Amino acid sequence: MVFMKKFKKIYVEITNKCNLNCSFCGTNKRDLREMTTEEFKIVLLKIKPYTDYIYLHVKGEPLLHSKLDEILSLCDECGVKVNITSNGVFLKEKLPILIKHKSIRELNVSLHSENNKPNYFDDVFSSCKVLSTKMFISYRIWTLDNLKLKGKSTEIVEKIIKFYELDEDVVEKLYKDKSIKIDINTFVDKDNLFTWPDTKNGYNIDGFCYGLKTHLGILSDGTVVPCCLDGNGEIKLGNIFTCDLGKIIDSAYYKTIEQGFKNNKSVHELCRNCNFRKRFNKS
Question: DSSP letter at 211?
Protein backbone atom coordinates (compact mmCIF):
# COMPACT_ATOMS: atom_id res chain seq x y z
CA MET A 1 0.00 0.00 0.00
CA VAL A 2 1.45 3.38 -1.07
CA PHE A 3 1.39 6.07 1.64
CA MET A 4 -0.16 9.35 0.45
CA LYS A 5 0.85 12.53 2.22
CA LYS A 6 -2.02 14.41 3.86
CA PHE A 7 -1.90 18.13 4.56
CA LYS A 8 -3.98 19.83 7.25
CA LYS A 9 -4.66 22.55 4.69
CA ILE A 10 -3.66 23.81 1.29
CA TYR A 11 -3.78 27.51 0.47
CA VAL A 12 -5.26 28.26 -2.94
CA GLU A 13 -4.93 31.83 -4.17
CA ILE A 14 -7.87 32.23 -6.55
CA THR A 15 -6.77 35.83 -7.22
CA ASN A 16 -3.88 38.06 -6.21
CA LYS A 17 -5.88 41.18 -6.95
CA CYS A 18 -6.88 43.31 -3.98
CA ASN A 19 -8.98 46.42 -3.55
CA LEU A 20 -6.74 47.67 -0.72
CA ASN A 21 -3.06 48.20 0.01
CA CYS A 22 -2.83 47.54 3.76
CA SER A 23 0.49 48.18 5.50
CA PHE A 24 0.43 44.84 7.37
CA CYS A 25 0.23 42.85 4.13
CA GLY A 26 3.39 42.15 2.16
CA THR A 27 3.92 43.83 -1.20
CA ASN A 28 2.74 41.91 -4.26
CA LYS A 29 5.45 41.84 -6.95
CA ARG A 30 3.63 39.55 -9.38
CA ASP A 31 1.38 40.30 -12.34
CA LEU A 32 -2.25 40.55 -11.31
CA ARG A 33 -4.45 37.64 -12.34
CA GLU A 34 -7.20 35.35 -11.16
CA MET A 35 -7.61 31.63 -11.70
CA THR A 36 -10.17 30.71 -14.31
CA THR A 37 -12.83 28.24 -13.24
CA GLU A 38 -11.18 25.65 -15.48
CA GLU A 39 -7.84 26.21 -13.75
CA PHE A 40 -9.51 25.95 -10.36
CA LYS A 41 -11.11 22.65 -11.41
CA ILE A 42 -7.63 21.34 -12.20
CA VAL A 43 -6.39 22.44 -8.77
CA LEU A 44 -9.30 20.80 -6.95
CA LEU A 45 -8.88 17.55 -8.84
CA LYS A 46 -5.17 17.39 -8.09
CA ILE A 47 -5.22 18.39 -4.41
CA LYS A 48 -8.38 16.58 -3.26
CA PRO A 49 -6.52 13.35 -2.40
CA TYR A 50 -4.06 15.35 -0.28
CA THR A 51 -6.31 17.47 1.93
CA ASP A 52 -9.85 18.03 3.14
CA TYR A 53 -9.39 21.75 3.80
CA ILE A 54 -8.50 24.57 1.43
CA TYR A 55 -7.88 28.20 2.33
CA LEU A 56 -8.74 30.73 -0.38
CA HIS A 57 -5.89 32.97 0.59
CA VAL A 58 -2.27 33.84 -0.05
CA LYS A 59 -2.39 37.31 -1.55
CA GLY A 60 -5.39 39.17 -2.87
CA GLU A 61 -9.03 39.52 -1.84
CA PRO A 62 -10.94 36.33 -2.70
CA LEU A 63 -14.32 38.10 -2.71
CA LEU A 64 -13.05 40.07 -5.72
CA HIS A 65 -12.99 36.99 -7.93
CA SER A 66 -15.31 37.53 -10.89
CA LYS A 67 -16.58 33.93 -10.70
CA LEU A 68 -16.75 33.53 -6.92
CA ASP A 69 -20.14 31.82 -7.04
CA GLU A 70 -18.87 29.25 -9.56
CA ILE A 71 -15.65 28.72 -7.59
CA LEU A 72 -17.60 27.94 -4.42
CA SER A 73 -20.02 25.70 -6.32
CA LEU A 74 -17.05 23.64 -7.49
CA CYS A 75 -15.95 23.34 -3.85
CA ASP A 76 -19.46 22.19 -2.90
CA GLU A 77 -19.34 19.49 -5.57
CA CYS A 78 -15.82 18.41 -4.63
CA GLY A 79 -16.66 18.02 -0.96
CA VAL A 80 -13.77 20.09 0.40
CA LYS A 81 -14.10 22.42 3.39
CA VAL A 82 -13.28 26.04 2.60
CA ASN A 83 -11.82 28.80 4.77
CA ILE A 84 -11.94 32.31 3.38
CA THR A 85 -9.78 35.22 4.52
CA SER A 86 -11.14 38.64 3.57
CA ASN A 87 -10.72 42.32 4.35
CA GLY A 88 -14.50 42.46 4.67
CA VAL A 89 -15.15 45.39 2.35
CA PHE A 90 -17.35 43.34 0.00
CA LEU A 91 -19.02 41.16 2.62
CA LYS A 92 -22.41 42.83 2.49
CA GLU A 93 -22.38 42.76 -1.32
CA LYS A 94 -21.35 39.09 -1.48
CA LEU A 95 -23.57 37.90 1.36
CA PRO A 96 -26.15 36.22 -0.95
CA ILE A 97 -23.34 34.16 -2.53
CA LEU A 98 -21.59 33.22 0.70
CA ILE A 99 -24.68 32.17 2.63
CA LYS A 100 -25.74 29.50 0.14
CA HIS A 101 -22.55 27.46 -0.16
CA LYS A 102 -22.25 24.46 2.14
CA SER A 103 -18.50 24.10 1.55
CA ILE A 104 -17.59 27.26 3.49
CA ARG A 105 -16.41 26.24 6.94
CA GLU A 106 -14.94 29.51 8.23
CA LEU A 107 -14.72 33.17 7.30
CA ASN A 108 -11.74 35.13 8.65
CA VAL A 109 -12.10 38.90 8.54
CA SER A 110 -9.05 41.16 9.00
CA LEU A 111 -10.62 44.10 10.82
CA HIS A 112 -7.43 46.13 10.54
CA SER A 113 -7.98 46.58 6.80
CA GLU A 114 -7.15 50.12 5.79
CA ASN A 115 -10.25 51.34 3.99
CA ASN A 116 -12.55 54.35 3.92
CA LYS A 117 -15.80 52.49 3.32
CA PRO A 118 -18.72 54.18 5.13
CA ASN A 119 -20.34 51.94 7.75
CA TYR A 120 -17.59 49.35 7.28
CA PHE A 121 -17.88 47.81 10.74
CA ASP A 122 -21.66 47.78 10.81
CA ASP A 123 -21.73 46.10 7.40
CA VAL A 124 -19.15 43.51 8.45
CA PHE A 125 -20.74 42.73 11.80
CA SER A 126 -24.30 42.53 10.47
CA SER A 127 -23.21 40.31 7.56
CA CYS A 128 -21.22 38.03 9.84
CA LYS A 129 -24.16 37.77 12.22
CA VAL A 130 -26.13 36.22 9.35
CA LEU A 131 -23.27 34.05 8.14
CA SER A 132 -22.56 32.70 11.64
CA THR A 133 -25.68 30.55 11.32
CA LYS A 134 -23.88 28.56 8.61
CA MET A 135 -20.15 28.88 9.36
CA PHE A 136 -17.51 29.94 11.87
CA ILE A 137 -16.56 33.61 11.97
CA SER A 138 -13.13 34.78 13.09
CA TYR A 139 -12.44 38.48 13.54
CA ARG A 140 -8.70 39.01 13.28
CA ILE A 141 -7.01 41.89 15.03
CA TRP A 142 -3.33 42.66 14.49
CA THR A 143 -1.94 43.97 17.76
CA LEU A 144 1.42 45.14 19.04
CA ASP A 145 3.89 42.90 20.88
CA ASN A 146 2.52 40.63 23.61
CA LEU A 147 -1.00 41.01 22.20
CA LYS A 148 -1.46 44.39 23.89
CA LEU A 149 -4.33 46.46 22.56
CA LYS A 150 -3.47 50.02 21.65
CA GLY A 151 -4.70 52.67 19.25
CA LYS A 152 -6.73 51.23 16.39
CA SER A 153 -6.83 47.79 18.01
CA THR A 154 -8.64 49.23 21.02
CA GLU A 155 -11.04 51.15 18.79
CA ILE A 156 -11.92 47.95 16.92
CA VAL A 157 -12.51 46.03 20.15
CA GLU A 158 -14.80 48.80 21.41
CA LYS A 159 -16.87 48.54 18.23
CA ILE A 160 -17.16 44.78 18.72
CA ILE A 161 -18.26 45.25 22.33
CA LYS A 162 -20.92 47.77 21.33
CA PHE A 163 -22.37 45.79 18.40
CA TYR A 164 -22.48 42.45 20.22
CA GLU A 165 -23.50 44.01 23.54
CA LEU A 166 -20.95 41.92 25.39
CA ASP A 167 -21.14 41.22 29.12
CA GLU A 168 -18.39 42.47 31.43
CA ASP A 169 -16.82 39.03 31.91
CA VAL A 170 -16.56 38.56 28.12
CA VAL A 171 -15.13 42.07 27.73
CA GLU A 172 -12.46 41.29 30.31
CA LYS A 173 -11.43 38.16 28.43
CA LEU A 174 -11.54 40.03 25.14
CA TYR A 175 -8.84 42.39 26.37
CA LYS A 176 -6.79 39.67 28.04
CA ASP A 177 -7.03 36.47 25.99
CA LYS A 178 -5.59 35.73 22.56
CA SER A 179 -8.74 34.02 21.32
CA ILE A 180 -12.25 34.29 22.70
CA LYS A 181 -15.76 33.31 21.67
CA ILE A 182 -18.10 36.29 21.67
CA ASP A 183 -21.22 34.89 20.02
CA ILE A 184 -22.60 31.76 18.34
CA ASN A 185 -19.83 30.43 16.05
CA THR A 186 -18.11 33.83 16.35
CA PHE A 187 -14.60 34.43 17.70
CA VAL A 188 -12.07 37.22 18.08
CA ASP A 189 -8.47 36.22 17.43
CA LYS A 190 -5.60 38.55 18.27
CA ASP A 191 -2.12 38.12 16.91
CA ASN A 192 1.06 40.15 16.81
CA LEU A 193 2.33 41.85 13.70
CA PHE A 194 5.25 40.20 11.93
CA THR A 195 7.70 41.05 9.18
CA TRP A 196 6.99 39.27 5.90
CA PRO A 197 9.89 37.11 4.70
CA ASP A 198 12.17 38.91 2.28
CA THR A 199 15.71 38.08 1.21
CA LYS A 200 16.62 41.67 2.10
CA ASN A 201 15.66 41.26 5.78
CA GLY A 202 19.14 40.12 6.74
CA TYR A 203 18.09 37.63 9.44
CA ASN A 204 20.04 34.59 8.19
CA ILE A 205 18.39 32.29 10.72
CA ASP A 206 17.93 28.54 10.77
CA GLY A 207 14.94 26.81 12.28
CA PHE A 208 11.97 24.50 11.99
CA CYS A 209 8.87 25.30 9.91
CA TYR A 210 5.53 23.59 9.36
CA GLY A 211 5.67 24.50 5.67
CA LEU A 212 5.53 21.32 3.52
CA LYS A 213 4.71 19.34 6.68
CA THR A 214 1.16 20.49 7.43
CA HIS A 215 0.49 22.82 4.51
CA LEU A 216 1.62 24.35 1.24
CA GLY A 217 0.35 27.07 -1.07
CA ILE A 218 -0.76 27.39 -4.69
CA LEU A 219 -0.58 30.82 -6.31
CA SER A 220 -3.04 32.15 -8.88
CA ASP A 221 -0.68 31.24 -11.74
CA GLY A 222 -0.42 27.65 -10.49
CA THR A 223 2.96 27.99 -8.80
CA VAL A 224 3.30 25.69 -5.79
CA VAL A 225 5.08 27.26 -2.80
CA PRO A 226 5.94 25.95 0.70
CA CYS A 227 3.64 28.27 2.63
CA CYS A 228 1.26 31.23 2.49
CA LEU A 229 4.06 33.68 3.34
CA ASP A 230 5.83 33.12 0.02
CA GLY A 231 3.37 35.50 -1.59
CA ASN A 232 5.67 36.35 -4.47
CA GLY A 233 6.47 32.78 -5.45
CA GLU A 234 10.20 32.91 -4.79
CA ILE A 235 10.37 29.21 -3.88
CA LYS A 236 8.90 27.60 -6.98
CA LEU A 237 8.35 23.90 -6.32
CA GLY A 238 6.49 23.30 -9.57
CA ASN A 239 3.24 24.28 -11.28
CA ILE A 240 0.00 22.51 -10.45
CA PHE A 241 -1.50 23.30 -13.85
CA THR A 242 1.12 21.24 -15.66
CA CYS A 243 2.27 18.73 -13.05
CA ASP A 244 0.59 16.40 -10.57
CA LEU A 245 1.04 17.35 -6.93
CA GLY A 246 2.46 13.91 -6.17
CA LYS A 247 5.35 14.47 -8.55
CA ILE A 248 6.06 17.87 -6.98
CA ILE A 249 6.07 16.31 -3.49
CA ASP A 250 8.45 13.58 -4.69
CA SER A 251 10.85 16.03 -6.34
CA ALA A 252 14.38 16.40 -5.00
CA TYR A 253 13.91 20.14 -4.45
CA TYR A 254 10.80 19.61 -2.32
CA LYS A 255 12.41 16.87 -0.26
CA THR A 256 15.58 18.90 0.33
CA ILE A 257 13.62 21.81 1.80
CA GLU A 258 11.35 19.48 3.79
CA GLN A 259 14.25 17.52 5.25
CA GLY A 260 16.03 20.76 6.11
CA PHE A 261 13.11 21.85 8.29
CA LYS A 262 13.07 18.45 9.99
CA ASN A 263 16.73 19.03 10.87
CA ASN A 264 16.03 22.58 12.08
CA LYS A 265 17.74 24.01 9.00
CA SER A 266 16.52 26.57 6.46
CA VAL A 267 17.60 25.57 2.98
CA HIS A 268 16.21 28.47 0.98
CA GLU A 269 17.35 32.05 1.50
CA LEU A 270 13.77 33.29 1.81
CA CYS A 271 13.17 30.90 4.70
CA ARG A 272 16.35 32.11 6.36
CA ASN A 273 14.87 35.60 6.24
CA CYS A 274 11.51 34.71 7.79
CA ASN A 275 11.07 35.68 11.44
CA PHE A 276 7.55 34.26 11.61
CA ARG A 277 9.16 30.86 12.25
CA LYS A 278 10.37 32.13 15.65
CA ARG A 279 6.82 31.50 16.90
CA PHE A 280 7.32 27.75 16.75
CA ASN A 281 11.10 27.36 16.54
CA LYS A 282 12.43 24.22 18.15
CA SER A 283 15.69 25.80 19.17
Answer: B
Q: Distance between CA 211 and CA 214 in Å, rounded?
A: 6
Strand partners, 243: none
| Angstrom distances, CA of residue 254 to CA of 122, 171, 249, 258, 266 | 45, 46, 6, 6, 13
Using a 10 angstrom Cβ sphere, with 0-12 exposed, 13-18 middle and 19 or more buried, the burial of residue 187 is middle
Pair 51, 6: CB distance under 8 Å: yes
Binned at pLDDT 50, 70 and 90, residue 143 comes out as confident
pTM above 0.70, yes or no: yes
Rounded Cα distance, 85 and 274, in Å: 22
**How far, in Å, CA of 161 to CA of 233, rounded?**
39
209-249: per-residue pLDDT in tens?
A: 999 999 999 999 999 999 999 999 999 999 999 999 999 99
